[in-house]
Amino acid sequence: MPTGIYERTEKILASYPRGERHYCWRGSEAGDRSLHIWVSRIMGKPRHCSGCGTKTATSYEWANISGKYKRDVSDYKRLCKLCHVEFDKMYGENLPQTKLREFEVRQIRDLYLKKVFHSGQLCKIFGVTQSNILAIVNHKSWRRLK
Ligand SMILES: [Zn+2]
Fold it and tell me: Which of 27, 59, 130, 144 has its CA at 20 to 30 Å from residue 121's CA atom?
């Protein structure tokens, strides 16, 4: 492995503090679940929806606002199942992409092209989904970036 790339990757990894290091937030069901249990333990069970305001829905869920699944209760809001689906449609897929900065996208393509990491590892390092990584390396997203 060329040392230049290795050092840069080490820097990327070091820039994510332990505990807050991102992971594939859609691929890691167990991680999502444990965080949702953690939020419920602190905030209690949600009894109303902050999306549509209903208090009569059969179930409520904690939606993650930033898409980063931070251990921060202000990063969650309670939504009914219907609003949660809408919320994920609007923000869930877009956030990981907008979260990345240009130099990170360049690094992803570089590391992938040089076969330093495969997409499954890159999504953990950069905290986006594997499909985001594949879209980036296949130039389906971030097209304007050559
Ligand atoms: Zn609702």
Answer: 144
| CA 127/CA 141 separation, integer angstroms | 16
What is the 142 CA–ligand 1 centroid distance (Å)?
Answer: 33
Kindly report, residue by residue over 8-36, the tens digit of the pLDDT: 556 655 555 443 344 444 434 445 667 77
* DSSP summary character for residue 74: G
Cα of 78 from ligand 1 centre, angstroms = 9
Q: What average pLDDT does the segment 42-70 reach?
A: 82
Residue-level pLDDT at 5:
52
Read off the pTM: 0.41
> What is the per-residue pLDDT for 112?
94
Q: How far apart are CA 78 and CA 143, in angstroms?
A: 35
The rounded Å distance from CA 24 to ligand 1 centre is 26
What lies within 8 Å, CB to CB, of 91 at 6+ separation is: 65, 67
Neighbours of ion ligand 1 (CB under 5 A): 49, 51-52, 80, 83
Over range 97-115, report the average pLDDT: 84
Distance 56 CA to ligand 1 centre (A): 10
CA of 49 to the centre of ligand 1 (A): 5
